[in-house]
Amino acid sequence: ESRRVRRAPRPPRPKSHLGAITLSALLVLAGVVWLLDLADVITLDVGVMVALALALVGAALITSAWFGRARGLIALGIALALAVGAFGVIDVPLRGGIGDTTHRPRAVGAVDGSYEMAIGRLTVDLGAVDFSGRRRTVHAALGIGKLDVIVPDGVRVVADGHAGAGTVIVFGRRTRDCCPVDVRRVRPGDVGGGTLRLTAEVGAGDVEISTEERNGTS
Fold first, then answer.
1. Cα–Cα 20 to 30 A to 53, which of 97, 166, 171, 212?
2. Distances (CA, A) of 98 to 38, 114, 122, 142
């Protein structure tokens, strides 16, 4: 009578540390970029950051085919790929940080030509600035979120508002078109009150250009 020879069970495959190493590398990458952005060495671009993270995860998944398992990275890679695709639809660069930021210059010399933020709420309050006899051009851009620009009375304003996906409100008038939304409106000013050429754009979200009184910031 033949006897079946039992094969010894295969030893369990050693646990791979590739996933933990990849996540650590992603955290280090985010930390270094954040510190460089705070030091004004570079300008944070969220879209580029997500693309770099996707490239890193992709490299880790390729490496896992030879050295260890990293199945958990597949879900992360899919999420990053979807995020990269979404950012590709947004037509305003995601630069300048994340959060809730308000710029409130008090003199025309303190007004910057450009204000940018990646994600969040960006407020550019020019209500206290005296533009008398001056011509200034200001560009405000937000990747995702809510963009508010406040202008003072008396100044002539040539306003261009843009939203890749969202709404544009200029001096109380909401545009119903979509998407993208592009609006140009000219508000007359006082004689000698100065001229402000304003461009306010958001990739996905809302843009509102209004006067000082309407926002209650007298």
1. 166
2. 12, 17, 9, 10
